[in-house]
Specification:
The complex is a heterodimer. Chain A is an all-alpha fold. Chain A has one domain: MetI-like (MetI-like fold, Orthogonal Bundle). In chain A, 79% of the residues lie in helices and 0% in strands. Chain A is built from 15 helices and no strands. In chain A, helix 12 runs antiparallel to helix 15. The longest helix of chain A has 34 residues. Chain A is globular. The two termini of chain A are 31 Å apart. By secondary structure, chain B is α+β, with helices and mostly antiparallel strands. Chain B folds into 2 domains: 226 residues, P-loop containing nucleotide triphosphate hydrolases (Rossmann fold); 50 residues, OB fold (Dihydrolipoamide Acetyltransferase, E2P). Chain B contains 9 helices and 17 strands. In chain B, strands 6-7-8-3-9-10 form a 6-stranded mixed sheet, with helices on both faces. Classes of the chains: A mainly alpha, B alpha+beta.
Chain lengths: 263, 319
């Protein structure tokens, strides 16, 4: 019994020090100066714009990577094709490589002399230092999450229920919508949550390609950095608080929605 | 609907699952495909359902070539050994599935599901999820689901294999009665020869992907086409120049022309019968099954030498 308590103590203590303390600190610091400065900082047009950019990037990246994740999961688990192992390994690339490196790659690819960059510039489309590059970086770093959640669930699910549905007259499309997707829905939802969190929080890759112009190509995490460097601590705290709150709300919502006994 | 498979072969890598099997299943029959595990019986059934593509050969449903037909267009009901219940749907939605995907009107679906719930005696369970049902209940649900769209063929893959003995016996009975009522062409796969003999009116015996024999239960038992069929349908032993089953051995105290000298190894009480383990002069082991009264009359004891005679009704290998 004491040993169990000791284990629990270590686990909890670790979480408090590593996770909870910084979060509490942000809350505490933000409200230290009172509510008015927070509101002022949050209603600043630059702050509003930065959150807008972040949300736009997330609104594009999340559906895109959800679709890709599900299709990719189905392909990897259900199909045999050459290069399958490679695809499986490549999904994890954004997790393995530092976001800054990813940013650099995009920079090189879409820059003035890059393979794609010169083509786009030739057609009058600005990728770097504009919204498209922010979206691209966000999509890149958030690729793995849905696929990684979906793949093990699909493996565990097997194909028997889908075969049963086929013998009962369901077409391929009906089998996907009525059997496969409902069976993996919790994995998809969890993947979406993780993807969203990653999109909202992305810093490194976006910092490399966006240019970080206040009120133009600034995302929320970049804004926090910008405010800190310019001694606008209230602004930095307030923006951090909103980011942290979104994360907490998303996680709590998921725990509430998720069924007690997952399959 | 009649089923015919012609020269079907299927291999998985180096393993030959089905090896040139041809089989005709008449309309309205109740056929068992019997064989040990790995004999290709499930693969054959899955080929009939369209869940597996044969490497060569043809499948004919009602005389029409269906080899390339997708499973959803074959009009078959399939019951899986492990139920394949749709876990995220209630019992009602599970049973309704075939009708829902056919976009039948709501009231029609409701009526048909109620009818089926009654048929499989799951009336009180319509709104439960499969995880809240016992194995036997799940399999009855799977049967109702397979029957919902009134398929022309019902295929069952080891349907009772995962259930305990009592439930299995109940469901066997029930399947027999259901077939008598609905008369849908039914094929079920089993490795249990007792189940096959008891339930089916025709039995096809498979061994290592090859069809050994097809026929009625009595025909197979009395005139097996091969030693494999003979042995698989029940214990059989070489006695003299022929084969006998345990209940076809008579034991006597005195020698006669066709009797073989054997030593009694062990006596085991099995209900009203006595199982007598014997060994002959060449070391061949066999088991006789006699009524306990007879054994007591003979006053048999282990270690004694007696004379074993095959009864006249013994089975004969078909030429």
């Amino acid at each position: 019994m004491p040993r169990k308590l000791g284990l629990r103590g270590i686990a909890l203590g670790y979480l408090v020090v590593v996770l909870l303390a910084p979060l509490v600190m942000v809350f505490y610091r933000t409200f230290q100066a009172g509510l008015h400065p927070i509101w002022a900082a949050l209603s600043d047009p630059n702050t509003v714009h930065a959150f807008k950019v972040t949300l736009i990037a997330a609104a594009i990246a999340v559906p895109l990577n959800t679709l890709f994740g599900v299709l990719c999961g189905l392909a990897i688990v259900r199909r045999r094709f050459p290069g399958k192992g490679l695809l499986n390994a490549f999904i994890d690339l954004p997790l393995a490589v530092s976001p800054v490196v990813i940013g650099l790659c995009l920079y090189l690819l879409y820059g003035r002399d890059g393979w794609f960059g010169s083509w786009f510039l030739g057609h009058g489309i600005q990728i770097l230092f504009a919204l498209p590059s922010i979206v691209l970086a966000t999509v890149f770093v958030s690729v793995p999450f849905v696929a990684r959640e979906v793949i093990p669930t699909l493996r565990e699910l097997g194909t028997e229920q889908e075969q049963a549905a086929a013998t009962l007259g369901a077409t391929g499309w009906q089998r996907f919508w009525r059997i496969t997707l409902p069976s993996i829905r919790w994995a998809v939802i969890y993947g979406v949550v993780l993807t969203t969190a990653r999109c909202l929080g992305e810093y490194g890759a976006v910092a490399m390609v966006s240019g970080g112009v206040l009120g133009k190509t600034q995302t929320a995490p970049l804004l926090v950095d910008n405010y800190m460097n310019n001694f606008n601590t209230t602004g930095a705290y307030a923006a951090s608080l909103v980011l942290a709150l979104i994360a907490v709300v998303v996680l709590v919502a998921m725990t509430l929605v998720k069924p007690r006994e997952s399959t | 609907m009649s089923i015919e498979v012609r020269n079907i072969s299927k291999r998985f890598g180096d393993f030959v699952a089905v090896d040139d099997v041809s089989l005709e299943i008449p309309d309205g029959s109740l056929t068992a495909v019997l064989g040990p595990s790995g004999s290709g019986k499930s693969t054959l059934l899955r080929i009939i359902a369209g869940l597996e593509r044969p490497d060569s050969g043809e499948v004919l449903l009602s005389g029409k070539d269906a080899t390339d037909l997708a499973p959803q267009r074959r009009d078959v009901g399939f019951v899986f050994q492990h139920y394949a219940a749709f876990k995220h749907m209630t019992v009602r939605d599970n049973i309704a599935f075939a009708l829902t995907v056919r976009k039948r009107p709501k009231h029609e679906i409701r009526a048909r599901v109620d009818e089926l719930l009654e048929l499989v005696q799951l009336q009180g369970y319509a709104d439960r999820y499969p995880s809240k049902l016992s194995g036997g209940q799940r399999q009855r649900m799977a049967l109702a689901r397979a029957l919902a769209a009134k398929p022309r063929v019902l295929l069952l893959d080891e349907p009772f294999g995962a259930l305990d003995a009592r439930v299995r016996a109940e469901l066997r009975d029930w399947l027999r009665r259901l077939h008598a009522e609905v008369h849908v062409t039914t094929v079920f796969v089993t490795h249990d020869q007792e189940e096959a003999m008891e339930v089916a009116d025709r039995v096809a015996v498979l061994n290592q992907g090859r069809l050994e024999q097809v026929g009625g239960p009595a025909e197979l038992y009395d005139r097996p086409a091969s030693e494999f069929v003979l042995r698989f349908l029940g214990d059989a032993f070489k006695l003299g120049d022929g084969f006998v089953r345990p209940h076809e051995i008579t034991l006597r105290r005195l020698p006669s022309d066709d009797a073989v000298e054997v030593r009694i190894e062990r006596l085991v009480v099995v209900g009203a019968d006595m199982r007598i383990e014997l060994v002959d002069g060449s070391g061949e082991r066999m088991t006789a099954r006699l009524r306990r009264d007879d054994v007591e009359d003979l006053e048999l004891t282990p270690g004694e030498i007696v004379w074993a005679t095959p009864e006249q009704s013994r089975c004969v290998l078909a030429p």
